[in-house]
Amino acid sequence: MIESSSELGPPTPVPGVETAITHAALRRQQPAWRLMLRKPTFIVGALILLFWIFCAVFGETIAPHNPLAQQLLAVNVAPSRAHLFGTDQLGRDVFSRVITGSRSILLIAAAATVLGTLLGTALGLLMGYLGGVLDILVGRVVEAVLALPIVIVAFLFIVALGPSAPTLIVVIGLVFTPLIARTVRSAVLVESQLDYLSSARLLGEKPPQIMFTEILPNVLPVILVEFTVRLGYAIFAVATLSFLGFGIQPPTPDWGSDIAANYGVLPAGYWWETLFPALAIASLIVGINLVTDSIEQVLAS
Amino acid sequence: MTAADTTAAPGAADEGAPTLVVEHMDVTYRVRGQDRRALRDVSFQIGHGESYGLVGESGSGKSTVALALTRYLPRNGRVSAGTISINGMDPLAMGSADLRDLRAHTVSMVYQEPGRALNPSIKVGHQVAEVYEIAGLDRKAALARAEDMLRKVQISDPARVMERYPHQLSGGMAQRVVIAMALAAEPSLLILDEPTTALDATVEAEVLDLVAALREEYDTSVLFISHNLAVIAKMCDRVGVLYAGELIEEGPAREVFAQPRHPYTVGLLRCIPRGGQRKDHGRLDTIPGFLPPPGDTPPGCIFAPRCPIAEDQCRAAAPPAFVTGPDRTSRCYLHDETTNLPRNTPVDLEIPSQRDDREPVVQLERLSKTFDQRGDAVKALVGVNLSLERGETLGLVGESGSGKTTLARALLGLIPPDQGSVIDLDGQPLQGDARRRTRDQLKALQIVFQNPDSALNRRHTVRRLISQPLSRLAGLSGARLRERLADLVRSVRMEDRQLSLRPSQLSGGLKQRVAIARAFAGGPRIVVCDEPTSALDVSVQAAILNLLVDLQVKEQVTYLFISHDLGLVRYLSDRIAVLYLGRIMELGPAETVFAGPHHPYTEALLSAVPSLDGQHPTRIRLQGEIPSAASPPSGCVFHTRCPRKLSTGECESTEPPLAEVAPGHLMSCHIPIDQLTILQQNGRAP
Question: Is the reported ipTM for this assembly greater than 0.95?
């Protein structure tokens, strides 16, 4: 038995044992972020995302006009030098509203996704590692949630609770929870087949320790991908709810509610009032999806 | 090139002309914008009806050769120099139609995983028949031919097998079907890439016999690729040894293995325990260093950095292929000095003499484990009685499905055994579930898993991986922990700078060293070694085995050594237990079990092992594969496959007890021991 260090002593020098690390192995170990930076799709996506985050943070400072200021003498003005994206029915500058409109949607979508990811990860770990009744019960709930479109479920709760930013965050976060839990659970099931968990049990580690220090680091990549995918969906959900009037409330500048407020004048030829907020939503979702795709590809390789 | 140079006969393949001629072939993979040569200047040829073996460790380029021959290289790979000629045709110059034709009629391939070569959604019969349909037969005739072919690969009930889907076949059966498909087109060249690596030894023996018989019948040339030297020795007329993409030695298989003329071949052969070599005879020799990374070519001989006799000239310029005998070449300047190559690893190893008063550390009584599989009770272990003594190695052998791993996991508390099973540690009963065992009990029983990739948390550093058991089991912290960590790292012969690396940055052998360090960290009494070297190359395997023996001598730890490789078991074990369908068939001192008289099952296992010396005693063959543990046969569970079954009907009706036939030698067989002795002597080749 190895009891004292002296008993073990220095090993007899035996030539012919491996001491070096394979060069190939070292070369392969490129940090993931560096591989990511080589991907044009990632760079484009990240730039779009960073642009909107910048707008969200510095909205009022960089916007040429006050997004709330109404100019009733200059309603429905077509895009021009003074108003890059024109003005809306109340004479508000569309460009300024698009710039500042990124704040609420990004904030709510990101917070909701963080909430959903945290809860979903915890639930997924429990379901995957402990299994049993919990797994079966939550599994059925997940199926029920999956059967309904996210927006409809969120819509029901918001009608009941009344629209507000915290409500939106909690509702969307909770709707995402079982979906994320399902993905995490299947990743945990894959890990459960591996011997390092048996090894941890033989060291006397308790289930919480095994779940959070052994398994969690190994499923983090999956969680990261899931987070970015869900972020895209969350933005879509917030925009849809705002469009339907159950999300961010006017007059706060918001892409979804601005489209809703102005699409009525589209037949009259005032296309800029809906096109630019719509493009903003589209560009943000495309940007996030580009980032997601590159993360997935890098992690898969 | 000297001996490798011959004039390839262009045009049609006439008798006598070689089927395959490869000359000066380079294969290059483009990885991240850089060309990496995976094969360099490879030249060999396979004569009509000849069987040629390519042997080498992982990363040597064996499979790349096979892929290049049929132009199946991945998109980033290409044959960047040299020529290939199959029956006088050049696959490199072919358009897609010709290439398809070549693959359909001239060259067939059989891969390691039969399951992946078959389409899971098409019935076996139709898949085989398809080959004939492509050749122009109508459906009905094709199905009839398919049935004939399946009978030829010794599938006993081809009509029924044809109605099955691939997932309903066992591994051995599926590989037979793949071989049937490969031979259906009556190819000139059959390429077998590790065809039996995924199979049990008994099944491997059958498949190898089959390939040998069919080769005679079809007069096909065979390229046989394997890492297993003994399999190559058994199957091939000539052999080429690949090292880091270069064919470093070539010649008749028997001569190359008997008198290797390249230091690498010598080293490889020395890494394998052969001819009854045992741990008390001394350490195995090893090959120091690593395979060079792909594309990294030193100016001199590619093996020089690892070669014990390398001289200045070896490092200056790459050696040409020297002719070292009739039909033999070696890419070594010093090919005359390989007969007395110095050892890389000293032999000396003090193994304390076996004491007779060994006290048992662990005792298993009536250990049973029944799994519930969709309502069926699968009896993986049935009433196993076994004791493990201090400082000994108990080898556990048996085919897959015999319950080896279940026994190990039950002992460790990873799967709770059935009610009534007893596991005693130093006379104290152990809980069936590891979670309910005390820290001292956990400390006493540890394991080295088969696959270190699975056994080590890939997100943790080596330091964390080894510190974990030190703090959790040995209860160390701070300076004391760091001190023990350093000791432990040295005792598994790793370096401090490797502590900050993660498993993916280590080679397979180093990973297994980390796993061994973890197992020994708490000061275990018993370490289960579950196939600890089966995922490793032979040169690395030897180093790991040496390490295990060294640690055992130092720590007086007991090993439960599980392996399908009987050579390894013989080298390492003091006693051997042979398991079949969850029951012990034979148990005894290692030498007795190997010397015989053996249990008929042990006899079959032993005779299934191909030997490097080219000596193949007449084999007693096992019929079919291991029966399902859900419905084990009546009486002696082995009677359905036993070649020595008694005609009295006793074997079918009553299960023989595990009885002592000689001191310390137990056997579960109705045949009296003296009769077994006579039977087995007669069954041997003269």
Answer: no
